[in-house]
Request: fold
Amino acid sequence: MNKRLISFALALVMLFGAIICANADSVVQLNELSACKKVFAYSGQNSAYFYGFYGKTLCSARVIPDVSVRWATVEGGVLAMCHDGETACALYKTGHEKYSAALLNVNSGGLVCRALETGEAVQFSSIAYSRGEVFVITVENGRSFVTGCTDGQNYKYDLTADVRQLFVNGGDAYAVADDGNVFRISRGAKTFCRALPDKGMVENAGSGYVYTADGALVNLSGGTEYPRAKHAVKSDGVTFTDNGRLPVAAACGYSAVPDDGFNCVIKPLDSFSPAGQGKAAANIIDGVVICKLGVTVKEFRESYPEVSEVRDKNGKALDSGKIRTGCVAVANGRSFEIAVSGDLDGTATASKNDIGLLMRYFVGSESLSGSAKTAADMNGDGTLDNRDLVLLAREAA
Reply:
């Protein structure tokens, strides 16, 4: 049986000041997270957080819709951590094969420490928490499964294979089996959701979405999108991507992007929402819409009803023809520059001239506009190099 321990003698809770508003294009300092082994992001429907741990300390920073930083120190080394929105949950070790969960309420700063009496060896790669139930991976006779711990009862969840990971998304707890199958779990019941396209670990990427190790933005209900970026989040119908080292978070129409110095910029999400499927599917990176070669204006407008107008580089409205690098899409009153992969010169094709432009750029005899640079970044890694030249040459062949 589990025991509920409410004890501030076992844990020192340190609170960080008052709340500040997350205004458009504001900058929030998150230096409290700089000591963490790794920083994670939680993007929910109504709020977004960054969190992490080091030593005996867990830390959570809400950045949307307002800013509040909370952290706590527990009596054992923290091993894993998760977020369900309002509550940050950390797994820590208190003795030989003895573990507890620390539940930190980010709104009030209150801390609850709960002993986990699983009766089995705990695999501390991940933890999940949802609606009062703490989930850990346990091992018995060489096989791993999930144990769910509530105040008065434990639940056992056997999956289709050994358990690889636990995570929280949209307030629900999920378990990933080694065969890639994802299950939603709660109070002894498990529901199959889908199979993942790769076998790496996943990160929260907005309510209903996860981002995989191989770069897939996956809908937990089915369907996969592949953004050309290091991190991606789906929020309010917008696929937000970023090439930074730290993860991004989004909620309530805003995105939060931390840099390596833990300065977090909070700004409105792009109002142009990529569909993510079909020939005319596009991505937005740094405010530039990236299209495939050969997409026509008609196909583009049909895929994106929010686009009221497409203009050429001189500002002339286009009703037909192919999308070219340098065109502009007007959506919801905002203008978005368009880059067509491989089309550096704005001719709607990838040709020897585009190859020559990129080669001259490399030697410093040619400059490229912002959209032309994006069009030249064939592999989408944010850097122009010989790998892009090889891919461009293949496209132009």
